[in-house]
Amino acid sequence: MRLWNSTVVVMLAAILVAGSAAAEVAVSERRSISVSGQGEASAAPDIATVNAGVQALAPTAIEAAKQNEALVSQVMAALKKQRIADKDIRTADYSIFSERRRDPRDNGETTITGYRVSNSVQVTVRDLDTLGDVLGAVTNAGANAVNGIEFGIDDGTALEARARAAAMADARSQAEALAKLAGVELGDVLQISLSSGGGYPRPVAMARMAMADAAPAPAPSVSAGELNVSVNVQVIYAIH
Question: Which of 39, 81, 204, 220 sees the fewest Cβ atoms within 10 Å?
Answer without folding.
Answer: 81
